[in-house]
Amino acid sequence: MTLSHRWGSKLYTKLESSTMERLQNDVDIPSLPQVFQDAIQIAYYLGIDYLWIDALCIKQDQDDRSDWEIEAQNMSRVYSCALLNISATLSSDGSESLFQERPRDPLLPLKVDLDINGNQQTYYVLNDNIWDEEITLAPLNQRGWVFQERFLARRVVHFGQRQMAWECHELDTLEMFPKGLPEPSTLSFNGKSVIYDKLAALSRQPDQILEDQFVDQWQDLVTKYSQCRLTYPKDKLIAFSGIAKRIREARADYYAAGMWQKSMICDLPWWRTSADRDAFPINQTSFRAPSWSWASVDGEINFPAISQGDPLADILEISAPVTNRSGVFDDSILIQVRGICLPFSVEWSNKDISSFKVDGLDFPMEYDLGGTAVDLESSEQEMQEWIQQGTILLLPLFFSIDFLHGILLRGIYGESTHRRIGAIEISREEDRNNNAAILEDNIRCRLEAGRTCIVDIS
Fold first, then answer.
1. What's the pLDDT tens digit per position in 302-357?
2. 110 located within any domain
């Protein structure tokens, strides 16, 4: 059995080189956090002989992370092979007991008998956000490592503030709905069973329509994960690697830095809100992934809302990653992309982008919903410097029904590689800007003539 919990700041005996011999001989259970004691009690009552708790099963030496680096790679096996995962969903720091006294009123939906035109019927009144309030938005499930633990575990029992809940690959339940959440219901939207089954099933099918569905599901998973918090941002990819390993078992594809090679063209134009770009500027973010990966930045990651895309580029090669034992990249991964590179420049007005130019064509910014937009990961000063150097390029990636989607690159001085500095989407509606139609024709003509280039992105 495994335990998902929040560490908190209270001191207790953890597994370290200095405590290993003592803990191998005897564990003073009353001295452990209350959540640990409760998990031990549950394992005892269920007749389960082995309980895995990270603080007691991985060495926590601050000056020697070698054991953590090894065990972090095994999280997929630990949680996916366990019989059951106990989730201390209600607990903020491990001091609260899982077995709390609760008022009985919220355990069952309110039953109401109504007489409508002489027809007596029974109705049930409930809060349709109770799953989010009890489980999804609980403090524990906002943690990045717990996101992976919850996804990997075959079965999860949540101890919430008002309800217990159950998740497995077949069923999501609450105490008030012991046979499963109502269908159709917002309660069960994208539950554990739905997400895992879809990703696994879609991975086994070569059909393009199903591949598009896989892209949607995977991007939704990444967006949800990016909303979680990590104590150490450098853990962003390693705390997600167990999920990738499980999907890779069913998917014939190459995985690198949070993306799959077959669907990478659709993933590359990820973007962040301006609030997250301001809160977590890229130039103050420690390196943990290549610039083209969503894992290179902090904050919520979003992807273009697309249906079936019309590709304008393709991935030729992904260099083998160089990592240390913890899965953190020691060097950047290069991707080699074949496509069309177009010169790009930007005009500012009062620190906002007023317009931009692509291949000599002008495009005004449209801040309304559904309009042309540029999402830059760099400052105005940096952009102006690169524009003067002529090192900024637009790499078109695909057409959706409404937009041309692409990424912005800058050449690295003295090197043959480029770095991703933003994403762009240009509306295809001719009444917005006729230059969009001209640009589309130019791109298609160059593709048909084979006038493509190969660019390395680090």
1. 998 775 568 899 999 998 755 544 445 545 788 999 999 999 888 877 777 778 88
2. no
- Report the helix count and the strand count for the chain, using DSSP H and E: 14, 20
Helix (H, G, I), strand (E, B) or coil at 41: helix
Ramachandran bin of 117, using left for φ above 0, alpha for ψ from -120 to 50, beta for the remaining angles? left
Q: How many domains does the chain have?
A: 2
> What's the rounded Cα separation, in Å, for the pair 436 and 415?
32
Beta strand 403-411 pairing with 392-399: antiparallel
User: Are residues 172 and 261 located together in one domain of the fold?
Assistant: no
Which 8-state DSSP code applies to residue 188?
G
Torsion of CA 338, 344, 348, 352, to 10 degrees: -20
Range of the domain at 373: 201-458
Residues 315 and 377 in one domain: yes
Residues 135 and 221 placed together within one structural domain of the fold? no
Buried b / exposed e along 239-249 (16+ C-beta atoms within 10 A): bbbbbbbbbbe
